[in-house]
């Protein structure tokens, strides 16, 4: 994808994800692979009101080629996700209430979901009877270290649709912008269902 088209796609994704309430304040960051490297959001902007000047163009190693401001504080995690799954074209990071709370409620390192038809919104899943697993990582302000934890976990169990960062949010990935958006929407629906189920079961 060309840089300008990549920025337009991310501006549109930002409006959509903001309308959903999944990137409050200046939370979230987005990237897309381009023919020369990556485009990533600049740090500290409201992702619902992005404009072309709110992006940096990076080369394949993550060095800045063009753009103003600082690249997202979490750029290293985006780059790691592209490295781990070379078919990944787009990474969108969101801060929904459901992803934030559920990732705190689950004490272990995995969210396991089964029994929901909506699991089929995720690439490669064809039945509600399968178990979808999403890796959960403790939040860390050292993004390079967090990215290394994700890489280590990927060696044991490939990261396919995304990862949860505890008390922080979701990193979703896909082979196109449309697929990444679908993965976010499907996962957010599943997180919300799980939260409702946990609440109901704990009040019985
Ligand atoms: C609202 S604070 C959120 C940030 O700390 C961070 O997690 C985030 O998602 C946005 O960081 P940014 O540097 O703007 O890409
Ligand atoms: Zn974040």
UniProtKB/TrEMBL annotation:
It holds the Pfam family Aldolase_II. GO terms for biological process: L-methionine salvage from methylthioadenosine; monosaccharide metabolic process. Belongs to the aldolase class II family. MtnB subfamily. It comes from Pseudoalteromonas piratica. This is Methylthioribulose-1-phosphate dehydratase. Pathway: Amino-acid biosynthesis; L-methionine biosynthesis via salvage pathway; L-methionine from S-methyl-5-thio-alpha-D-ribose 1-phosphate: step 2/6. Gene3D superfamilies: Class II aldolase/adducin N-terminal domain. The keyword Zinc applies.
């Amino acid at each position: 994808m060309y840089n300008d088209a990549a920025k337009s796609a991310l501006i549109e994704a930002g409006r959509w994800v903001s309308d959903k309430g999944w990137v409050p304040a200046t939370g979230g960051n987005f990237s897309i692979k381009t023919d020369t490297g990556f485009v990533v959001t600049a740090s500290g902007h409201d992702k619902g009101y992005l404009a072309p000047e709110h992006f940096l163009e990076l080369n394949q190693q993550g060095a800045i080629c063009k753009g103003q401001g600082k690249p997202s504080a979490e750029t290293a995690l985006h780059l790691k996700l592209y490295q781990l799954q070379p078919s990944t074209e787009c990474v969108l990071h969101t801060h929904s209430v459901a992803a934030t709370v559920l990732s705190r409620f689950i004490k272990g390192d995995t969210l396991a979901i089964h029994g929901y038809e909506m699991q089929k919104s995720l690439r490669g899943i064809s039945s509600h009877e399968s178990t979808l697993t999403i890796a959960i990582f403790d939040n860390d302000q050292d993004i390079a270290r967090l990215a290394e934890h994700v890489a280590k976990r990927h060696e044991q169990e490939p990261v396919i649709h995304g990862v949860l960062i505890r008390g922080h949010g979701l990193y979703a990935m896909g082979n196109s912008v449309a697929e990444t958006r679908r993965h976010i929407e499907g996962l957010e629906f599943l997180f919300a269902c799980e939260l409702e189920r946990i609440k109901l079961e704990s009040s019985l």
